[in-house]
Design brief:
The protein has helices spanning 2-42, 49-53, 60-66, 68-86, 93-99, 102-112, 117-138, 141-165, 171-185, 189-211, 221-233. With 236 residues, the protein is mostly helical.
Length: 236
């Protein structure tokens, strides 16, 4: 028993010493924070060079972090649905590449009305590479011409809407429209027209629903993505 009491006393002394050390660190940390806060207040109108050089966190990253489970589950389900519907073929590659970021882009656009280049650019590159692989595997160079025409046609259509909407449609939507046009053209021109029309209808429904709730701005990306995928998966 005496040995146990000694061990407990030693442990208590060690804990007390650790707590005292922690209190000292907390006070020092508080002093540092007060100093930093004072410096920040003094430099509120004149940011330092180090602060200006610090990159800001992109606004879309917190959205992805918050909805990461929904995005992950939705992406896996979408990719599985594409494979089940279209089968494992070279022609499925562009659709799979497009779907890889489709859910994330839709969620981000709903949340902050932006389609970040950090996601749209890799998506465009992946879809373009998939289209090249498809054409090489099928020994069909004309397919690449059709896909380029589809991307150009849909891109011009959304570019026109961009200028007519006077800021209602963003450049991110135009870029995504180019990618969607390429993916739809990987099937045929019927899918290009159907996908573009469905995108317009779905976006109109989203706009009416959000405007009825007092929202003056609404996203185009989710409707564009949904229209393309519905045309690819459900329209013959």
């Amino acid at each position: 028993m005496p040995e146990i009491e000694v061990e407990l006393e030693d442990e208590a002394e060690a804990v007390a010493a650790a707590m005292a050390e922690g209190d000292g660190l907390a006070e020092a940390d508080k002093a540092d924070k007060d100093e930093i806060s004072g410096g920040a207040e003094g430099a509120a109108t004149e940011p330092t060079a180090s602060a200006a050089a610090t990159p800001e966190r992109p606004p879309w990253q917190p959205v992805v972090a918050r909805w990461r489970i929904l995005i992950a589950v939705g992406t896996v389900a979408l990719e599985a649905g594409i494979l089940a519907r279209l089968g494992v073929h070279w022609t499925t590659l562009p659709v799979l590449a497009f779907a890889a970021t489709a859910v994330a882009l839709a969620v981000i656009d709903f949340a902050i009305l932006r389609l970040p280049n950090a996601l749209t650019a890799p998506t465009a590159l992946a879809v373009a590479l998939a289209a090249v692989v498809q054409a090489l595997a099928d020994h069909d160079a004309h397919q690449l011409v059709t896909e380029a025409e589809g991307a150009l046609g849909v891109g011009l259509f959304y570019s026109l809407l961009y200028f007519l909407s006077r800021g209602g449609l963003g450049l991110g939507d135009v870029k995504l429209g180019v990618v969607a046009g390429l993916v739809l053209a990987s099937r045929d021109w019927t899918h290009v027209f159907n996908g573009t029309f469905l995108a317009y209808v779905i976006t109109l429904i989203i706009a009416l629903a959000m405007m009825s709730r007092g929202r003056k701005r609404f996203p185009y990306g989710p409707g564009l993505i949904a229209g393309a995928l519905i045309a690819l998966l459900l329209v013959p």
